[in-house]
Protein backbone atom coordinates (compact mmCIF):
# COMPACT_ATOMS: atom_id res chain seq x y z
CA UNK A 1 0.00 0.00 0.00
CA UNK A 2 1.48 3.40 -0.95
CA UNK A 3 2.09 6.14 1.60
CA UNK A 4 -0.70 8.57 2.34
CA UNK A 5 -0.27 12.22 1.43
CA UNK A 6 0.55 13.08 5.04
CA UNK A 7 3.04 10.26 5.38
CA UNK A 8 4.83 11.06 2.16
CA UNK A 9 5.57 14.65 3.21
CA UNK A 10 9.30 15.05 3.67
CA UNK A 11 12.12 17.47 2.96
CA UNK A 12 12.21 16.47 -0.68
CA UNK A 13 8.98 18.41 -1.18
CA UNK A 14 10.75 21.66 -0.32
CA UNK A 15 14.08 20.63 -1.85
CA UNK A 16 13.41 19.34 -5.38
CA UNK A 17 15.75 16.93 -7.09
CA UNK A 18 17.58 19.76 -8.90
CA UNK A 19 19.25 20.79 -5.65
CA UNK A 20 22.52 19.30 -6.88
CA UNK A 21 22.66 22.12 -9.48
CA UNK A 22 23.41 24.65 -6.74
CA UNK A 23 26.32 25.08 -4.34
CA UNK A 24 26.14 26.53 -0.83
CA UNK A 25 29.67 25.95 0.44
CA UNK A 26 33.36 26.02 -0.57
CA UNK A 27 33.58 22.22 -0.81
CA UNK A 28 30.82 22.15 -3.43
CA UNK A 29 31.33 25.33 -5.51
CA UNK A 30 34.52 24.24 -7.36
CA UNK A 31 32.97 20.89 -8.24
CA UNK A 32 29.80 22.54 -9.52
CA UNK A 33 31.88 24.81 -11.79
CA UNK A 34 33.75 21.76 -13.03
CA UNK A 35 30.44 20.03 -13.78
CA UNK A 36 29.16 22.93 -15.87
CA UNK A 37 32.41 23.27 -17.82
CA UNK A 38 32.58 19.54 -18.57
CA UNK A 39 28.90 19.49 -19.51
CA UNK A 40 29.42 22.40 -21.91
CA UNK A 41 32.39 20.67 -23.55
CA UNK A 42 30.53 17.38 -23.89
CA UNK A 43 27.48 19.08 -25.43
CA UNK A 44 29.75 20.95 -27.86
CA UNK A 45 31.46 17.71 -28.90
CA UNK A 46 28.09 16.03 -29.48
CA UNK A 47 26.91 18.98 -31.59
CA UNK A 48 30.10 19.00 -33.69
CA UNK A 49 30.08 15.24 -34.24
CA UNK A 50 26.38 15.32 -35.05
CA UNK A 51 26.91 18.14 -37.54
CA UNK A 52 29.77 16.36 -39.29
CA UNK A 53 27.73 13.16 -39.42
CA UNK A 54 24.80 15.04 -40.99
CA UNK A 55 27.09 16.58 -43.60
CA UNK A 56 28.57 13.16 -44.39
CA UNK A 57 25.11 11.64 -44.81
CA UNK A 58 23.42 14.33 -46.88
CA UNK A 59 26.18 15.87 -49.00
CA UNK A 60 26.18 14.91 -52.69
CA UNK A 61 29.01 12.55 -53.58
CA UNK A 62 30.70 12.67 -56.99
CA UNK A 63 29.91 9.93 -59.46
CA UNK A 64 33.14 7.99 -59.34
CA UNK A 65 34.30 4.47 -58.53
CA UNK A 66 34.83 3.76 -54.81
CA UNK A 67 38.55 3.14 -55.23
CA UNK A 68 38.95 6.64 -56.59
CA UNK A 69 36.93 8.21 -53.75
CA UNK A 70 39.17 6.74 -51.05
CA UNK A 71 42.37 7.82 -52.75
CA UNK A 72 44.18 10.93 -51.56
CA UNK A 73 44.86 12.40 -48.12
CA UNK A 74 41.50 14.05 -47.34
CA UNK A 75 40.54 11.34 -44.82
CA UNK A 76 43.93 11.48 -43.11
CA UNK A 77 43.71 15.28 -43.00
CA UNK A 78 40.47 15.13 -41.02
CA UNK A 79 41.95 12.58 -38.62
CA UNK A 80 44.93 14.86 -37.94
CA UNK A 81 42.61 17.85 -37.40
CA UNK A 82 40.43 15.83 -34.99
CA UNK A 83 43.41 14.65 -32.94
CA UNK A 84 44.99 18.11 -32.90
CA UNK A 85 41.80 19.62 -31.53
CA UNK A 86 40.76 16.91 -29.07
CA UNK A 87 44.08 16.09 -27.38
CA UNK A 88 44.71 19.60 -25.95
CA UNK A 89 41.08 19.80 -24.80
CA UNK A 90 41.27 16.41 -23.06
CA UNK A 91 44.59 17.29 -21.41
CA UNK A 92 43.17 20.61 -20.22
CA UNK A 93 40.10 18.82 -18.81
CA UNK A 94 42.35 16.36 -16.95
CA UNK A 95 44.50 19.13 -15.48
CA UNK A 96 41.47 21.16 -14.43
CA UNK A 97 39.87 18.10 -12.81
CA UNK A 98 43.04 17.40 -10.81
CA UNK A 99 43.27 21.04 -9.72
CA UNK A 100 39.63 20.95 -8.60
CA UNK A 101 40.16 17.72 -6.66
CA UNK A 102 43.10 19.34 -4.88
CA UNK A 103 41.01 22.42 -4.03
CA UNK A 104 38.25 20.39 -2.36
CA UNK A 105 40.55 17.81 -0.73
CA UNK A 106 40.90 19.81 2.49
CA UNK A 107 39.50 23.05 3.92
CA UNK A 108 41.44 26.28 4.15
CA UNK A 109 41.45 26.05 7.95
CA UNK A 110 41.53 23.10 10.32
CA UNK A 111 38.00 22.06 11.33
CA UNK A 112 37.19 22.69 14.96
CA UNK A 113 34.35 20.15 14.91
CA UNK A 114 34.51 16.47 13.97
CA UNK A 115 31.37 14.35 13.62
CA UNK A 116 31.30 10.57 13.19
CA UNK A 117 28.54 9.38 10.86
CA UNK A 118 27.81 5.66 10.66
CA UNK A 119 25.56 4.36 7.89
CA UNK A 120 23.06 1.59 8.59
CA UNK A 121 20.39 -0.09 6.47
CA UNK A 122 18.62 2.40 6.19
CA UNK A 123 19.43 5.31 8.50
CA UNK A 124 22.36 7.41 9.74
CA UNK A 125 23.87 7.43 13.23
CA UNK A 126 25.40 10.82 14.04
CA UNK A 127 27.88 10.92 16.93
CA UNK A 128 29.27 14.16 18.34
CA UNK A 129 32.04 12.30 20.10
CA UNK A 130 34.97 14.64 19.51
CA UNK A 131 34.11 17.42 21.96
CA UNK A 132 36.88 18.33 24.40
CA UNK A 133 34.23 18.52 27.11
CA UNK A 134 32.94 14.97 27.64
CA UNK A 135 29.60 16.34 28.87
CA UNK A 136 28.94 17.62 25.33
CA UNK A 137 29.33 14.22 23.66
CA UNK A 138 26.11 12.68 22.44
CA UNK A 139 24.49 10.65 19.66
CA UNK A 140 21.58 11.56 17.43
CA UNK A 141 20.24 10.27 14.11
CA UNK A 142 19.52 11.43 10.55
CA UNK A 143 20.03 15.10 11.39
CA UNK A 144 23.43 16.78 11.42
CA UNK A 145 23.77 20.22 12.98
CA UNK A 146 26.81 22.33 12.10
CA UNK A 147 27.86 25.95 12.69
CA UNK A 148 27.51 28.01 9.50
CA UNK A 149 30.63 29.47 7.95
CA UNK A 150 32.97 26.90 9.51
CA UNK A 151 34.46 23.71 8.04
CA UNK A 152 33.37 20.48 9.71
CA UNK A 153 35.18 17.15 9.42
CA UNK A 154 32.96 14.12 8.81
CA UNK A 155 34.27 10.66 9.67
CA UNK A 156 32.32 8.06 7.72
CA UNK A 157 31.74 4.44 8.71
CA UNK A 158 29.32 1.69 7.72
CA UNK A 159 27.75 -0.94 9.94
CA UNK A 160 26.64 -3.25 7.13
CA UNK A 161 27.11 -2.60 3.38
CA UNK A 162 28.63 0.16 1.25
CA UNK A 163 26.73 3.44 1.45
CA UNK A 164 27.58 6.88 0.06
CA UNK A 165 27.26 10.12 2.03
CA UNK A 166 26.18 12.99 -0.21
CA UNK A 167 25.02 16.52 0.58
CA UNK A 168 24.88 17.99 -2.96
CA UNK A 169 24.86 21.66 -1.97
CA UNK A 170 27.75 21.26 0.46
CA UNK A 171 30.15 18.62 -0.90
CA UNK A 172 30.67 15.72 -3.25
CA UNK A 173 30.12 12.04 -2.57
CA UNK A 174 32.18 9.93 -0.17
CA UNK A 175 31.62 6.23 0.43
CA UNK A 176 31.04 4.65 3.82
CA UNK A 177 32.67 1.22 3.67
CA UNK A 178 32.46 -1.55 6.30
CA UNK A 179 35.70 -1.89 8.26
CA UNK A 180 37.09 1.40 6.98
CA UNK A 181 36.89 5.04 8.08
CA UNK A 182 36.74 7.62 5.31
CA UNK A 183 36.77 11.36 5.79
CA UNK A 184 35.05 14.31 4.16
CA UNK A 185 34.56 17.95 5.06
CA UNK A 186 31.51 20.13 4.61
CA UNK A 187 30.85 23.81 5.14
CA UNK A 188 27.70 25.87 4.70
CA UNK A 189 28.12 29.50 3.73
CA UNK A 190 24.83 30.49 5.37
CA UNK A 191 22.34 29.06 7.86
CA UNK A 192 19.78 26.73 6.33
CA UNK A 193 18.63 23.15 5.95
CA UNK A 194 20.47 21.08 3.34
CA UNK A 195 19.18 17.75 2.11
CA UNK A 196 21.49 14.74 2.10
CA UNK A 197 21.05 11.29 0.60
CA UNK A 198 22.71 7.90 0.31
CA UNK A 199 23.73 7.72 -3.36
CA UNK A 200 25.12 4.16 -3.42
CA UNK A 201 22.46 1.51 -3.99
CA UNK A 202 22.35 -0.36 -0.69
CA UNK A 203 19.16 -2.39 -0.73
CA UNK A 204 15.40 -2.23 -0.85
CA UNK A 205 15.02 1.08 1.00
CA UNK A 206 18.01 2.89 -0.48
CA UNK A 207 15.71 5.67 -1.74
CA UNK A 208 14.42 6.20 1.82
CA UNK A 209 17.83 6.73 3.36
CA UNK A 210 18.04 10.50 3.58
CA UNK A 211 19.22 12.98 6.19
CA UNK A 212 19.44 16.71 6.76
CA UNK A 213 22.30 19.05 7.54
CA UNK A 214 21.11 22.00 9.62
CA UNK A 215 23.53 24.93 9.51
CA UNK A 216 23.02 27.59 12.16
CA UNK A 217 24.87 30.38 13.89
CA UNK A 218 27.63 29.44 16.33
CA UNK A 219 25.46 30.58 19.26
CA UNK A 220 22.46 28.53 18.09
CA UNK A 221 24.68 25.52 17.47
CA UNK A 222 26.17 25.79 20.97
CA UNK A 223 22.68 25.99 22.49
CA UNK A 224 21.50 23.00 20.44
CA UNK A 225 24.54 20.95 21.46
CA UNK A 226 24.00 21.71 25.13
CA UNK A 227 20.37 20.62 24.90
CA UNK A 228 21.20 17.45 22.97
CA UNK A 229 23.81 16.43 25.55
CA UNK A 230 21.18 16.36 28.29
CA UNK A 231 19.42 13.16 29.28
CA UNK A 232 15.72 12.75 28.65
CA UNK A 233 13.41 14.63 31.00
CA UNK A 234 11.36 12.68 33.54
CA UNK A 235 7.66 13.06 34.27
CA UNK A 236 5.22 11.92 36.98
CA UNK A 237 2.27 11.89 34.59
CA UNK A 238 0.55 8.48 34.74
CA UNK A 239 0.04 8.25 30.98
CA UNK A 240 3.67 9.18 30.35
CA UNK A 241 4.84 6.59 32.91
CA UNK A 242 2.72 3.92 31.25
CA UNK A 243 4.11 4.91 27.85
CA UNK A 244 7.66 4.69 29.15
CA UNK A 245 7.02 1.20 30.50
CA UNK A 246 5.58 0.19 27.14
CA UNK A 247 8.60 1.65 25.33
CA UNK A 248 11.03 -0.23 27.57
CA UNK A 249 9.11 -3.43 26.93
CA UNK A 250 8.78 -3.18 23.15
CA UNK A 251 11.46 -0.78 21.89
CA UNK A 252 14.44 -0.72 24.28
CA UNK A 253 16.10 -3.71 22.65
CA UNK A 254 16.96 -1.56 19.63
CA UNK A 255 16.59 2.09 20.66
CA UNK A 256 18.39 4.10 23.33
CA UNK A 257 17.06 6.93 25.46
CA UNK A 258 19.72 8.42 27.68
CA UNK A 259 18.55 8.75 31.25
CA UNK A 260 16.46 5.57 31.02
CA UNK A 261 17.07 1.84 30.92
CA UNK A 262 16.72 1.83 27.12
CA UNK A 263 20.24 1.19 25.84
CA UNK A 264 19.68 -0.36 22.41
CA UNK A 265 22.35 0.31 19.79
CA UNK A 266 20.88 -1.08 16.57
CA UNK A 267 18.42 1.74 15.87
CA UNK A 268 18.35 5.54 16.23
CA UNK A 269 18.91 7.14 19.62
CA UNK A 270 15.58 8.74 20.54
CA UNK A 271 16.63 10.83 23.54
CA UNK A 272 15.52 14.06 21.89
CA UNK A 273 13.23 12.66 19.22
CA UNK A 274 10.82 15.59 19.18
CA UNK A 275 13.58 18.08 18.38
CA UNK A 276 14.00 16.60 14.87
CA UNK A 277 12.19 17.73 11.73
CA UNK A 278 11.97 14.29 10.15
CA UNK A 279 11.77 10.63 11.17
CA UNK A 280 12.46 7.30 9.44
CA UNK A 281 15.59 8.70 7.76
CA UNK A 282 13.84 11.57 6.02
CA UNK A 283 10.74 9.62 4.98
CA UNK A 284 8.18 11.29 7.26
CA UNK A 285 7.71 14.67 8.87
CA UNK A 286 8.06 14.44 12.63
CA UNK A 287 4.52 14.73 13.95
CA UNK A 288 2.77 12.77 16.69
CA UNK A 289 0.54 11.13 14.08
CA UNK A 290 3.45 10.11 11.88
CA UNK A 291 5.36 8.75 14.87
CA UNK A 292 2.51 6.35 15.63
CA UNK A 293 2.03 5.59 11.94
CA UNK A 294 5.69 4.63 11.74
CA UNK A 295 5.58 2.49 14.89
CA UNK A 296 2.48 0.58 13.82
CA UNK A 297 3.17 0.46 10.07
CA UNK A 298 6.94 0.53 9.57
CA UNK A 299 6.89 -2.46 7.25
CA UNK A 300 4.26 -0.81 5.08
CA UNK A 301 6.12 2.50 4.93
CA UNK A 302 9.64 1.02 4.55
CA UNK A 303 9.33 -2.67 3.62
CA UNK A 304 12.32 -4.86 4.58
CA UNK A 305 13.65 -2.33 7.10
CA UNK A 306 14.70 -3.70 10.48
CA UNK A 307 11.96 -1.70 12.21
CA UNK A 308 9.02 -4.07 12.84
CA UNK A 309 5.40 -3.00 12.69
CA UNK A 310 4.15 -3.03 16.29
CA UNK A 311 0.44 -3.55 17.01
CA UNK A 312 -0.88 -1.14 19.67
CA UNK A 313 -4.23 -0.86 21.36
CA UNK A 314 -5.90 2.55 21.66
CA UNK A 315 -4.75 3.13 25.23
CA UNK A 316 -1.25 1.87 24.46
CA UNK A 317 -0.97 4.21 21.49
CA UNK A 318 -2.13 7.18 23.58
CA UNK A 319 0.31 6.39 26.39
CA UNK A 320 3.24 5.82 24.04
CA UNK A 321 2.49 9.06 22.21
CA UNK A 322 2.41 10.90 25.55
CA UNK A 323 5.83 9.51 26.45
CA UNK A 324 7.41 10.27 23.05
CA UNK A 325 6.13 13.84 23.32
CA UNK A 326 8.40 14.36 26.34
CA UNK A 327 11.53 13.55 24.31
CA UNK A 328 12.25 17.14 23.37
TrEMBL record:
<dbReference type="Pfam" id="PF00116">
    <property type="entry name" value="COX2"/>
</dbReference>
<comment type="function">
    <text>Subunits I and II form the functional core of the enzyme complex. Electrons originating in cytochrome c are transferred via heme a and Cu(A) to the binuclear center formed by heme a3 and Cu(B).</text>
</comment>
<dbReference type="GO" id="GO:0004129">
    <property type="term" value="F:cytochrome-c oxidase activity"/>
</dbReference>
<keyword id="KW-0349">Heme</keyword>
<dbReference type="InterPro" id="IPR014222">
    <property type="entry name" value="Cyt_c_oxidase_su2"/>
</dbReference>
<dbReference type="GO" id="GO:0016491">
    <property type="term" value="F:oxidoreductase activity"/>
</dbReference>
<protein>
    <recommendedName>
        <fullName>cytochrome-c oxidase</fullName>
        <ecNumber>7.1.1.9</ecNumber>
    </recommendedName>
</protein>
<dbReference type="GO" id="GO:0016020">
    <property type="term" value="C:membrane"/>
</dbReference>
<feature type="domain" description="Cytochrome oxidase subunit II copper A binding">
    <location>
        <begin position="110"/>
        <end position="227"/>
    </location>
</feature>
<keyword id="KW-0249">Electron transport</keyword>
<feature type="transmembrane region" description="Helical">
    <location>
        <begin position="78"/>
        <end position="99"/>
    </location>
</feature>
<feature type="transmembrane region" description="Helical">
    <location>
        <begin position="36"/>
        <end position="58"/>
    </location>
</feature>
<keyword id="KW-0812">Transmembrane</keyword>
<dbReference type="InterPro" id="IPR002429">
    <property type="entry name" value="CcO_II-like_C"/>
</dbReference>
<dbReference type="InterPro" id="IPR034236">
    <property type="entry name" value="CuRO_CcO_Caa3_II"/>
</dbReference>
<keyword id="KW-0186">Copper</keyword>
<dbReference type="InterPro" id="IPR001505">
    <property type="entry name" value="Copper_CuA"/>
</dbReference>
<keyword id="KW-0813">Transport</keyword>
<dbReference type="GO" id="GO:0020037">
    <property type="term" value="F:heme binding"/>
</dbReference>
<keyword id="KW-0472">Membrane</keyword>
<feature type="domain" description="Cytochrome c">
    <location>
        <begin position="238"/>
        <end position="328"/>
    </location>
</feature>
<dbReference type="InterPro" id="IPR045187">
    <property type="entry name" value="CcO_II"/>
</dbReference>
<keyword id="KW-0479">Metal-binding</keyword>
<keyword id="KW-1133">Transmembrane helix</keyword>
<dbReference type="InterPro" id="IPR036909">
    <property type="entry name" value="Cyt_c-like_dom_sf"/>
</dbReference>
<dbReference type="Pfam" id="PF00034">
    <property type="entry name" value="Cytochrom_C"/>
</dbReference>
<dbReference type="InterPro" id="IPR009056">
    <property type="entry name" value="Cyt_c-like_dom"/>
</dbReference>
<dbReference type="InterPro" id="IPR036257">
    <property type="entry name" value="Cyt_c_oxidase_su2_TM_sf"/>
</dbReference>
<comment type="similarity">
    <text>Belongs to the cytochrome c oxidase subunit 2 family.</text>
</comment>
<dbReference type="GO" id="GO:0005507">
    <property type="term" value="F:copper ion binding"/>
</dbReference>
<keyword id="KW-1278">Translocase</keyword>
<keyword id="KW-0679">Respiratory chain</keyword>
<dbReference type="GO" id="GO:0042597">
    <property type="term" value="C:periplasmic space"/>
</dbReference>
<keyword id="KW-0408">Iron</keyword>
<dbReference type="GO" id="GO:0042773">
    <property type="term" value="P:ATP synthesis coupled electron transport"/>
</dbReference>
<dbReference type="InterPro" id="IPR008972">
    <property type="entry name" value="Cupredoxin"/>
</dbReference>
